[in-house]
Amino acid sequence: MSGAVFMTELPSFDRLLWMAENTPEKLDALQTKLSKEAIALSREHNRANLTSLLDHLNKRLGLCKTPYQRCHLVSSLMFQKLTLLNQAYCQPEQFLQNKAEVVPLRKRTK
């Protein structure tokens, strides 16, 4: 990471609520900016995973039609990640045994 990166100050709750009701596009822009700043401040070896996770989240959020759906989606995804973290913490041996099988693809013959 080159240069210092500072986190943007989060507005007050009342201001965020006002933005959600009046300028949701500005609230979305703030969320994107803060997410990118948090990724930039993370450890270098975590950035690719966090960027991928953010991209996945944004694609899923783009399919939501209401703020409630967005909230439910984020809550659900966070719960799934916390479940994995709990398993890794409480049952590390079992968690480490979960490995994907890599199947090589064969080239098609003409």
Characterise the protein shown here.
By secondary structure, this protein is mainly α. The chain folds into two domains: 11-63, no CATH class; 65-98. Helix content is 70%, strand content 0%. The protein contains five helices and no strands. Helix 1 crosses helix 2 and helix 2 packs antiparallel against helix 3. The longest helix has 24 residues, at 67-90. The radius of gyration is 19 Å and the shape is extended. The mean pLDDT is 88. It comes from Shewanella pealeana (strain ATCC 700345 / ANG-SQ1).
Measured on Cα atoms, how large is the radius of gyration? 19 Å
Q: What's the quaternary structure here? A: single chain
Q: Output the helix-strand order.
A: HHHHH
- What's the number of structural domains? 2
Helix content: over 70%
How is this structure best summarized?
It comes from Shewanella pealeana (strain ATCC 700345 / ANG-SQ1). This protein has 110 residues and is mostly helical. It is built from five helices and no strands.
Please render the helix and strand layout as text:
Blueprint lengths: L12 H10 L1 H18 L2 H19 L4 H24 L1 H6 L13
Helix pairs in contact: 1-2, 2-3
Question: Any descriptors?
Answer:
DUF3135 domain-containing protein, mainly alpha, 2 domains, DUF3135, 110 residues, extended
